[in-house]
Specification:
The complex is a heterodimer of chains A (about 290) and B (about 280).
Chain A: H1 2-5, H2 7-11, H3 13-38, H4 42-51, H5 53-63, H6 67-91, H7 96-118, H8 121-129, H9 137-166, H10 168-174, H11 177-200, H12 207-219, H13 223-248, H14 252-270
Helix pairs in contact in A: 3-9, 3-11, 3-12, 3-13, 4-7, 5-6, 5-7, 6-7, 6-11, 9-10, 9-11, 12-13, 12-14, 13-14
Chain B: E1 2-13, E2 16-27, E3 31-35, H1 42-50, E4 57-61, E5 70-73, H2 87-92, H3 96-99, H4 107-119, H5 135-149, E6 153-157, H6 165-180, E7 184-188, H7 192-198, E8 201-206, E9 208-214, H8 215-218, H9 221-232, E10 252-253, E11 257-258
Helix pairs in contact in B: 4-5
The chains are: A mainly alpha (about 290), B alpha/beta (about 280).
Chain lengths: ~290, ~280
């Protein structure tokens, strides 16, 4: 048993790095994913993950597979798309989803085009699907750093962000925090997508944000429990996904996201907020 | 000292006025029911006073209003009922002006949250998720939050919409209590019976101000009919407005109750040249 569960991590440094990366992603990206879910922006997170591609691709075009260049490029591209979409939403009759869709589609197309200008297919695969099993020290530090900054920012923004999600009109009425919470949160989404992009690639970075959050939402009634459960689900899925990848010799990124999916489907069946809960016969209802 | 001075105020969307050339004063301590047909600009007026909507003409001055002195409760708001927060947390949001984004709640403040819940009859609901409340209970929770906001000027947009009579009575009792404490309250109300029964002063709007004064003198059949006529005369392709003369709310006296409100509201149903700017 231990040789199946523990030894891959004790024997191989790349597995330990991957494990640390998954822990950092679970702590940083997943709480952000919880708020994405609660703000009904799950699909927007997906859109934004595609939006960072051309920035990362430009960094790649200029400097090859350089961590710094691709990170800065990705963050800049993500912020540009978020701000541009926000601007279009405010100044035109298009709603946020439409303007974001327009920008991210253009962004994705530009990104793939840029990568293919110079790269080989292997590089494209790396950008799209990440390389959690090949995290070097710098990438690991970056992911851990982003996770730390995210936790601090979330702690500072927590109350305004909750109010912005729950009753934005009220928050606007009592303070000027509303835009700070909104745009601050979007920035956190972008940097965490970039962080997830190094490990899981642009296409799947959102997986570890949204799937554990959705699963946890089916179990938890309060926000603290929801955040805690989501982080636990994300980390557990990370560990299980790495082991699956190790033993079955399949790519790690998709394995992790698929395990997240398994957790989600189990929750969907078993959790109090899931599919079966309301359909089972009730033995005794409450007195009042 | 008036609480609100409206100076030739025009509010609207897309250049179409929803509140048109409104001037007048609302005295501090007044309890005013804002009435009028659908689309008369009642909600728009409240939005304008609350600062949610920038005037497209004229201005709103509130000289005596301290910072954070305005509490505004929109009609439905943008409340996300499925969000996992408890009733206690929602009501405690009313303490924002005291605790801000980072401050913790003191024992005394927790006590006040519970008192507010008690005052609206929601004792025992503290830990319930907000989504489990009925419409009336949610409205009670929003009123509890208003209690904690402790604002001298309170704007309520249709607080009694789709609420049973028992709840309405309780909420009206709260409003009358605030009135007795000297707060200024503007409430949009649809049910004229409720206005006649509870509100000393009424403002009848129909884009143009129709009348403002003691409720009995505002809610007369003639004035109400006139308000209906005015609202029906709205024209989507109205010509540009170049009014210099200004319809005025008569200066109110005492308890915000003005002299019988004759307001000079000129007709706007004469659409001259149609300018299609859509």
């Amino acid at each position: 048993m231990t040789e199946f569960l523990i030894d891959p991590f004790t024997d191989f440094a790349f597995m330990r790095r991957a494990l640390a990366g998954c822990l950092a992603l679970a702590l940083g990206a997943t709480p952000v994913g919880v708020f994405l879910l609660l703000r009904r922006m799950s699909l927007m997170g997906d859109a934004m993950s595609h939006a960072i591609l051309p920035g990362a691709a430009l960094g790649y075009l200029a400097f090859g597979l350089s961590l710094g260049a691709m990170t800065v490029g990705g963050i800049v591209a993500g912020l540009v798309v978020v701000l541009a979409a926000g601007l279009v939403t405010r100044a035109s009759i298009l709603k946020e989803d439409a303007s974001l869709a327009a920008f991210y589609l253009l962004s994705l197309a530009a990104g793939v085009m840029i990568v293919s200008l110079r790269g080989r297919n292997l590089d494209l695969l790396h950008v799209l699907f990440g390389s959690v099993l090949a995290l070097d020290d710098a990438s690991l530090l970056l992911i851990a750093g982003i996770a730390s900054v995210t936790l601090v920012c979330l702690a500072l923004l927590f109350r305004p962000l909750v109010m912005e999600c729950f009753d934005p009109a009220f928050l606007r009425g009592v303070s000027r925090w509303s835009p700070v919470a909104h745009y601050g949160f979007l920035m956190l989404v972008v940097v965490n997508l970039v962080s997830g992009f190094h490990a899981l690639g642009t296409l799947m970075a959102v997986g570890i944000m949204i799937l554990p959050s959705a699963a946890a939402r089916l179990w938890a009634r309060g926000l603290p429990m929801l955040l805690l459960l989501a982080v636990l689900f994300a980390f557990a899925s990370g560990v299980a996904g790495l082991l699956l990848s190790f033993h079955a010799d399949v790519p790690a990124g998709p394995a992790i996201v698929l395990v997240c999916g398994v957790v989600y489907f189990i929750s969907l069946l078993a959790a109090p907020g899931g599919l079966l809960a309301g359909r089972l016969p009730v033995r005794n209802h409450l007195e009042r | 000292m008036p609480m609100i001075q409206l100076d030739n105020l025009t509010l609207g969307y897309d250049r179409h006025p929803a509140v048109h050339h409104l001037s007048g004063e609302i005295a501090a301590g007044a309890l005013v029911a804002v009435v009028g047909p659908n689309g008369a600009g009642k909600s728009t007026l409240l939005k304008g006073i609350a600062g949610e909507l920038r005037p497209i003409g004229g201005r709103i001055v509130m000289p005596a209003l301290p910072a954070h002195g305005l509490a505004y409760m929109p009609q439905r708001g943008e409340i996300d009922h499925s969000f996992p927060v408890s009733v206690f947390d929602v009501v405690a949001m009313g303490l924002w002006h005291e605790v801000g984004a980072f401050g913790g709640l003191s024992r005394r403040q927790r006590e006040r949250v519970r008192d507010a819940l008690d005052a609206v009859g929601l004792t025992g609901f503290e830990a319930r998720p907000i989504g489990s409340l009925s419409g009336g209970q949610l409205q009670r929770a929003r009123f509890a939050r208003l209690i904690l906001q402790d604002a001298p000027l309170i704007l309520l947009d249709e607080p009694f919409a789709a609420i049973d009579s028992r709840t309405v009575e309780d909420l009206v009792a709260l409003i009358l209590g605030w009135h007795a404490e000297g707060r200024t309250i503007l409430t949009v109300v649809h049910d004229l019976e409720q206005v006649r029964r509870y509100f000393p002063t009424a403002l009848l709007l129909s884009r143009e101000p129709v009348a403002f004064g003691p409720t009995a003198q505002v809610l007369t059949p003639e004035l109400l009919a006139r308000a209906r006529r005015l609202s029906e005369a709205f024209d989507d392709n109205a010509a540009e407005c170049h009014i210099e003369a200004v319809p005025t709310l008569p200066p109110s006296t005492g308890d915000g109750a003005a002299a019988p409100g004759h307001v000079h509201a000129h007709d706007h149903d004469h659409a001259h040249g149609h300018d299609h700017r859509h």
